[in-house]
Design a protein that fits this description.
Length: 179
């Protein structure tokens, strides 16, 4: 064997000796990265509430799934279940004006605000807060008490949509609130 053949064989062996540990190292890094990413993808926010979606019949448009839920609201006499519509179009939660007294709020000390609703109609309300129970947790939420008669209780974005993940599962006809 000449010197050139010995040199080429030596370089080949050196290449194998260096590349095997490097390949193993980078393979381990790739596997660790995939495992880390997949565990992050599998991590789900914890379920707070699962509520069946209601169905409402409209004269002109037919049946529509409606996110109506019963939530306990803290009153002076304890918690009282109250029907809310989960409304992503509502900036803040709202209750009819008569609820202020039930939960111990004096509207004389509450800030009176105006806002525009459906059809750009101007409404007035009193800004305060309420405590509700979501799952096993008591949560303080901002609320307005509306002056308009016959309004429904709404669970709005502030304090809900910015703190929880809301999932509408139309296949199973349920709504989930996750933390």
């Amino acid at each position: 064997m000449d010197n050139r053949s010995v040199f080429i064989q030596g370089m080949f062996k050196l290449l194998i000796i260096v590349s095997l540990p490097l390949s193993a190292f980078f393979g381990f890094l790739a596997l660790a990265s995939q495992t880390s990413q997949s565990s992050q993808l599998l991590a789900e926010p914890s379920l707070v509430l699962r509520i069946p979606l209601g169905v409402r019949q409209w004269t002109d448009i037919g049946s529509v799934m409606e996110p109506v839920l019963q939530i306990p609201v803290k009153t002076l006499l304890g918690f009282e279940n109250t029907e809310f519509v989960l409304d992503s179009g509502a900036v803040i939660s709202s209750l009819p004006r008569n609820w202020a007294e039930k939960i111990g709020k004096d509207l004389a000390y509450a800030k009176r605000i105006s806002f525009k609703g459906f059809g750009n109609t101007l409404s007035f309300a009193y800004q305060s807060d309420m405590t509700v129970r979501l799952g096993t947790e008591n949560v303080d939420l901002p609320v307005v008490f509306t002056e308009s008669e016959g309004t429904r209780a709404l669970l709005g974005r502030k304090g809900v949509f910015d703190q929880y993940s809301i999932v509408f599962d139309h296949t199973n006809k349920v709504m989930e609130i996750r933390k």
